[in-house]
Amino acid sequence: MRMYCRQIFLALALLVSFTGQVLAAQDADNLKALTSQLIAANYAEKEQLAGQIAALDDERVLPILSALLEGELFYKKDDEQILIVKGDAINNAFSGDAVDVPGKRDKKKIGVNNSLRGELRSLIARAQINSRKESVRLDAAANLLKNSADVELTLVNEALAKETSSDVKDILSLVRGLILLKSEDQAERITALELLDGSLYPEVRASLNQFISGFSEEEIKTRKTEYTAATKSLASIETLVEMNGYIENLYFGLALGAVLLLAAIGLAITFGVMGVINMAHGEMIMLGAYTTYVVQQLMPDHTGLSLVVSIPAAFLVAGAVGVAIERGVIRHLYGRPLETLLATFGISLILQQAVRSVFSPLNREVATPDWMAGTFMLNPALELTWNRLYIIIFSLLVLATLALVLKRTLFGLQMRAVTMNRPMASSMGIRTGWVDALTFGLGSGIAGIAGVALSQLTNVGPNLGQAYIIDSFMVVVFGGVGNLWGTLVAAMSLGVANKIFEPIAGAVLAKILVLVFIILFIQKRPRGLFALKGRAVENG
Amino acid sequence: MTRNDNMGPLTRLLMNDAQGRKLLMVLVALAVIIPFCNLVFPQDSFFHISTYTMTLLGKYLCYALLAIAVDLIWGYCGILSLGHGAFFALGGYAMGMYLMRQIGDRGVYGNAELPDFMVFLNWQELPWYWFGFDQFWFAMLMVLLAPGILAFVFGFLAFRSRVTGVYLSIITQAMTYALLLAFFRNDMGFGGNNGLTDFKDILGYSLQSDNTRAALFIASVLAVIIGYLISRFIVTSKLGRVLVAIRDAESRARFLGYRVEYYKLFVFVVSSMLAGVAGALYVPQVGIINPGEFAPINSIEIIIWVAVGGRGSLYGAVIGAVLVNYAKTYFTGAFAELWLFMLGGLFVLTTLWLPKGVVGLWAQIKEKQQIRKAGSAAANASAQGDVS
């Protein structure tokens, strides 16, 4: 009986979609009428009504059917207005206007049972695949691919015949292939194998695997062409997937490298250029992350904007703290690196405890704007997250800006002059004390910017900085002190190395391996990958 | 060696060390008085010292020995190790493994061969590196060898390729960090996150009894005394002078023909072994060893003990360790929030204004006065010069 109904509705649906626009106005009226009938109908009638609704050519059909499926379709008791209720938002199902329903009891849900739900799902799939919007059809096709076992071949064939978009067509023909693969007819199976060849969708791989394992010893001989074709395309798919896995690993590695780079750039200035061991560097990152948190609290409705505002804010906060540290403590300790290390470590403890006292020791939640969440798909086997891409780009931008500041600005020139030859710079009229303070502030400020980025990736807590301090030092030392380019190469290679070891050895062991590697590397080349040559070495 | 043979160098060692003599006398007095007060006087007596206090003091003494070890390399040879906690923890783990084996079948799972956590992880047999730890002598050997070998390999590589100064500090920190991560892994077979604990007895004596605690306390005092004497012997010997020369001008010492790396390696290994012994005495007194001991911050804290006490004076290291740790016990109990502020402040203040630590404070004040006196005398002289 149900099958029969379905066919009728399908026919209806096709009829309606073919007759097109002319009937649209009429459909709108029908939609209202049919939907209103849902209120009084029993479940069997509701199934019929739903079918009739699905057959209408109106863009409001899909939301109404989905709402019915999700149990979000209500009606108002007094005037029998149909409502769609999503959380606290109550809207008229047809006009979309907000409706004021004073009491909880003034509206009533339009009930659904399991049989109706099943019916609704297939109706929705049908309506979607016939939708006028390409994106909806694409989603629908992907859905069919996921549930290809329950899809009828006729539906796919019809959709394929009408389809104009090649993206949707590709997926639909895969669905067709998946269905045909189960066919009894050998010719159809071979067509299926041709259709499926080279596709990276996990569903295709799974059913090919299933298909191959279904062969008995004897069948392998009798159905040789099929078997070889299937194994061959599976093997080629597998290699492709594996390659994509490598690319994904590389991507993760680069993203980790970008995080390391961000954390280490500031240190490359304070440690690399000035030679100051700043153990409070991690706390500058933490301050940046907390600045992001505070800015977000100040403008809770604009997550994206707050993130943009946070970048200069974090730079200023961390930079100011950096200048204060330099003027207050480090200034007195130049030339005594070990003492500097201890004093800045003390500062890091104080900053941590200060944050703990002000913001509580618990982690703080920093919201992620929509455009950073989610993934983008390069191909079905390779889905990459947006936030990592942004981090990579951001870190490179920061590095480039810093390089520009160092190379092209007066401040950068003075800074380099002071690090090369302090007395000479001083005698040329450069206020070396101020340059020191500003340089340290710059390094700290960049650490603060790193904190903004990290707030999007990890928990913002008082110990945030501690997690990165050792890594940052490793990057700077590995890359070669006083060399931004070295820092970039070191950060990226350490990030990628970490992610390459990870699947083989596990996350922790990978980290240990990388640490041991650096320890050994420093033995071999104590000045890092790109060591400064000449006089500067002797002063280090 | 009999005691008489030892008298010669020992008296010579102590003749020129007035503070050292005082320190040793205090230590000996502690070793006698505290166990006596703990064991002889009844609980409610005024003179009774609780087992808790005694164990706490014992813990401080272990820290003191650790501070001596760090001062030996940092104060006298300029090697700032930010990973000495690792040697301490390794010694502790060696002891912990012995104590673990001593539990026998009294564990929760009642397995005579395997410690509880291995039964829990479904391990069938003892890993090879656990063999021998049921023997006390072997465990004690490992207390010395495990940190010693690590220090030897690490130091050999580092000193040979002339990794010095802050670079060395950073890679020692990386070393202890790597070990921290490693010991956190359950697969390592050292109890993972929880470490080794639930110890029952040592050499057949219950760890809960006051007598054992007193014996451990006395052992800690002895360890500090012996550690002090060894270090003192090293720094007053000719080798010690070379070490100081390396500290002050490494390349000059090298140009004079000293094999700098071997001197450094020797003192680094000795120091690591002292740290290992400190760890081994620490574990039975606190009753647990876990990977947290490898945390880089612990190693850095040792540095501050030495810095507060007075870098480059062995008895100063002892004083610093006890002072800072007493302050830590007091403040974490009374004002937990304030402790990190205090500790951080200590770091900043000592490095800025107390380069010689507490023990150098007096000399520092005196020096200031002299400078002021000399300054005013000079000012007077120049004033007179102007008049005439």
TrEMBL record, chain A:
Main location: membrane
Bilayer topology annotation: Multi-pass membrane protein
Record InterPro entries: ABC_transp_permease (IPR001851), ABC_UrtB_bac (IPR017779), BCAA_transport_permease (IPR052157)
Pfam family, one: BPD_transp_2
Annotated transmembrane regions: 250-277, 305-325, 337-355, 389-413, 434-455, 467-492, 504-522
Location in or out of the cell: Cell inner membrane
Coiled coil: none
Keywords, in A-Z order: Amino-acid transport, Cell membrane, Membrane, Signal, Transmembrane, Transmembrane helix, Transport
Signal peptide feature range: 1-24
Cited CDD domains: TM_PBP1_LivH_like
Superkingdom assignment: Bacteria
NCBIfam families documented for this protein: urea_trans_UrtB
Family classification: Belongs to the binding-protein-dependent transport system permease family. LivHM subfamily.
Name listed for the protein in its UniProt record: Urea ABC transporter permease subunit UrtB
Species, as recorded: Thalassolituus marinus
From TrEMBL, chain B:
The keyword Heme is annotated on this UniProt entry: no
Topology class, membrane: Multi-pass membrane protein
Organism for this UniProt entry: Thalassolituus marinus
CDD domains with a match to the protein in the record: TM_PBP1_LivM_like
GN (gene name): urtC
Cited InterPro entries: ABC_transp_permease, ABC_transptr_urea_perm_UrtC, LivM-like
Keyword Phosphoprotein: no
Top-level lineage group: Bacteria
Transmembrane segments: 23-41, 61-90, 136-159, 166-184, 214-235, 262-282, 302-327, 334-354
The protein's name in its UniProt record: Urea ABC transporter permease subunit UrtC
